[in-house]
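We append the chain.
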Amino acid sequence: MTAAQAMASAAARLRAAGVSDPARDARVLLAHAARIEASRVTLIAPEELDLDIAERYDQLISLRAIRVPVSHLIGEREFYGRRFKVSGDVLDPRPETECLIEAALAQPFDRVLDLGLGSGCILVTLLAEQPLATGVGVDLSEAACLQASANAVLHRVEERAEILQSDWFASVDGQFDLIVSNPPYIALDEMPTLSDEVRRHEPEMALTDGGDGLGAYRVLAAGLAQHLTTEGRVLLEIGPTQAQAVQALLADAGLEQIQVIRDLDGRDRVVSARKSEKTGGDR
């Protein structure tokens, strides 16, 4: 069987299994099985597949057909132009989170705190884009901290990134001129509506608070004033229906200049706010 024939057969299997973009996944997984860049798949299309490649490819397609995410099969996901190592221990970096990155980079910062850092894609990206900045990232999951540490090394920001296992602010000291977070915001009753790839293969603690989806924001709002410098900013990723509730929590915490930023699909995606001189919590 040639590579082209194998890819066509794989795409048909994935389509029958209900995978949303079978042709793309078949191509990416063939490249991974053959240990080449996806852009080179067309070059090997007329060639017969070696037996070992064919066997690896068949196994990958079988796993994808039962909805194991492509990122978990190849071990990485692209985010803001960089490749991040991922696994079932962390939330997959998502394109919509790049909206938070753009907002963060729109103004200068020296010291950033990432709460619930997961793979580290937000913290590592911000430090890579701002080579003079330093940052702290925290996650309750030890496995996530290890994954984020590996990505910090991969992108050569490890000397400027301190990664701590912490329950939100519990182990965090000092103040920051930028605080960012993509917390678990899916309500428990919304979990059954998620795709199999997400619901079955991503860590539940990174997806939902087990309640109404606002639990993390309540905790974050309560600690922001203490950990933000005067005029410091906070950027929180949200679910598309949560803007009003999160804005209210930040207003109650005394933050000002509260705004909602929409993603490229026009959905509410990030709430931003700033600490003023009259906001409490200074140390």
Summary: Residues 91-274 form a domain with the Rossmann fold fold (CATH 3.40.50.150).
